[in-house]
Each structure stands twice: as structure tokens, then as C-alpha cells.
Design goal:
Layout lengths: L6 E6 L5 E12 L2 E8 H6 L9 E7 L5 E5 L3 H15 L6
Antiparallel strand pairs: 1-2, 2-3, 3-4, 4-5
Length: about 100
């Protein structure tokens, strides 16, 4: 089981708006690293973190070696990361 990060990260979208996320975990799936995060805006509305839908970002490096977060929106990739994370933290799909 991995240790939860719970670090706060501020991301800036394409329009320059800032969004704050809580980093839940970073895992490696199929030789790629993924950050699993929850929006703190959603947490403010409902403090139960277990009820929030996580956002999954693939961690990549640009040409200058800077890390970038790419939202995972392909179903197959998203499902693979979710399945790996649930196995890692011991969640049972039937719960």
C-alpha cells in the first residue's frame, strides 16, 4: 500500500485560471507515472474525500526537462490507472 501524499498543488489552465488540487498518490502504470488528484473546490462542497471523483494526470517531460501534467481522458488508459490504484490501496470493486 502506498502512502497518501495529500500535498496541495496549484495548476494553471490554458486561460490562466488557477485551480488547486490535493495530490492523493503518484503511481507507475505501464512505464508511465500518473498523479491522482482531487480538486479542492469539490472538497469544499463535500468534505468526504472518499466520495470525490479523482482526476488522473499523466506526468510527462517537455523538451526542456520540465514536468507537465496531461489529463488522462482516454477510457482504456484511465481504467488501467484506476484499476492499478485500487489494487494498490486495497479497494474492492464490490464495496
Amino acid at each position: 500500500m502506498t502512502e497518501m501524499q495529500n500535498d496541495l498543488i496549484t495548476l494553471v489552465d490554458e486561460e490562466g485560471n488557477e485551480h488547486q488540487f490535493m495530490l492523493l498518490d503518484i503511481i507507475n502504470v505501464n512505464n508511465s507515472d500518473y498523479a491522482i488528484m482531487v480538486s479542492t473546490e469539490e472538497l469544499a462542497a463535500d468534505d468526504d474525500i472518499d466520495e470525490q471523483e479523482a482526476v488522473i494526470f499523466r506526468i510527462e517531460e517537455d523538451g526542456d526537462g520540465q514536468q507537465m501534467l496531461i489529463v488522462v481522458d482516454e477510457d482504456e488508459e484511465w481504467e488501467a490507472v484506476v484499476t492499478a490504484w485500487e489494487e494498490l490501496i486495497g479497494l474492492d470493486e464490490e464495496e
